[in-house]
Prior knowledge:
This is Mannose-6-phosphate isomerase. It catalyses: D-mannose 6-phosphate = D-fructose 6-phosphate. Its EC number is 5.3.1.8. Its cofactor is Zn(2+). By secondary structure, the chain is an alpha+beta fold. The protein folds into three domains: 10-148 and 261-294, Jelly Rolls; 153-252, Phosphomannose Isomerase, domain 2, CATH 1.10.441.10; 323-418, Jelly Rolls, CATH 2.60.120. It contains eleven helices and 24 strands. Strands 6-1-22-19-24-17-16-15 form an eight-stranded antiparallel sheet, covered by helices on one side. Strands 2, 5, 7, 9, 10, 11, 12 and 13 form an eight-stranded antiparallel sheet that branches. Strands 18-23-20-21 form a four-stranded antiparallel sheet, with no helix packed on it. Mean pLDDT is 95; it is low at 298-302.
Amino acid sequence: MTEQVFRLIPATQNYPWGKKGSSSLVAQLADGSGIPDFKVDESNYYAEMWMGTHPNAPTRVHGTKQLLSEHLAAHPELIGESVIKRFGLENGQIPFLFKVLSFDKALPVQIHPDKHTAEHVHSENSRACVDSNHKKEMTLALSNFSALCGFLPTSRVSEFLAFVPEFASLFPADIIAHFTSVACSPDESGRKAALKDLLSCYAQIDKAEAAAQLKRLVERYQADKESDEEKDIKPLVLQLHDMYPDGSDVFCAFILNHFNLKPGHAFSVTTGEPHAYITGDIIECMATSDNTITLASSPPSHLDFLSNVAYNPTPGKTLIQPTMFTRGSTSTAGSLLYNPPINELAVMQVIVAKGGVESHRELRGPSIAVVVEGEGTVVWAEGAKRLGLGKGQVVFIATGTEVKYSAFETAFKLYRAFVEVA
Length: 422
């Protein structure tokens, strides 16, 4: 009989927006994870650590080095029949992909396609859509975290068109006139149509002209010549310009909502919702997919940003409110549950005080946990089996397995992603 709890070897992804060397939380965790021959390269960028069965960066079983998907295909009882049937899983796949991200440079503005689109495009062009799944996701801040997500209300975009001449210069006069005329209208469909027209123009702007206008804008801001309507947005524009001096995406600051989140804050991103993470360390969990459409690459032939984006302006983002998974849990002790409106996943923050114990009931689905601070043990099989864990180490926990976490000399902190089927 195979073990119900066992260590995993995650995979890392190196992108230029990741944090450099040992300043990256991803590098710190990877250094303790057991990745063969891993050594932090202080000149390299460590952006993401993946834990799951997606083939683009698959997890392996520690010890045997076998792909996790192969191991689970041979032992489907670890996933559970109800989960396999509910999500139509095959070949040892699990329905969620768990990540840690660490970045100090903005990611590209992007969206993720819905399942119908992903299935259709993947069947025709597997390069345009690397898999056939949607990619709804949740993000949980581990540090101070900054992001763009979702369209600003059209009334606010209209104000920027009026008070930011460098931004307005990117659009034809008739597009601005129409947008301004409907920006405050009660006609929701009219506002969305105007936003679509504006974004269509934005996606096709001349990059050299955008760079020139950005230079003028930054020079004006650096000279403190902004209007009152621009004072709140000025720091973000200058920050994005420092990251991308010639980047036309900087002007997205005048189109998308900006959020500054604290550790423990979380939100979900649905399909078609534009977003760009700017700085911070986060937990990210999503339906198992790597389908991403960036605004910068629009419009390619098979899968373009403009036809898949959801034109839904909102005044802000609703945060996921954590609930107690175990009685008496708080943001500094116990187990808090972050349960987004995504069927494939949920995430728990687990903090065990020095010398303490935290017990988790059986879950009706598989889970993966990663240790981000401290050392401790996970115990299962009614105390008959245990596994020591430290920072960066990752474990798989089979469906229907009751576990207990114990801390050693310091607090023991981990995050556990899971799926549960009633």
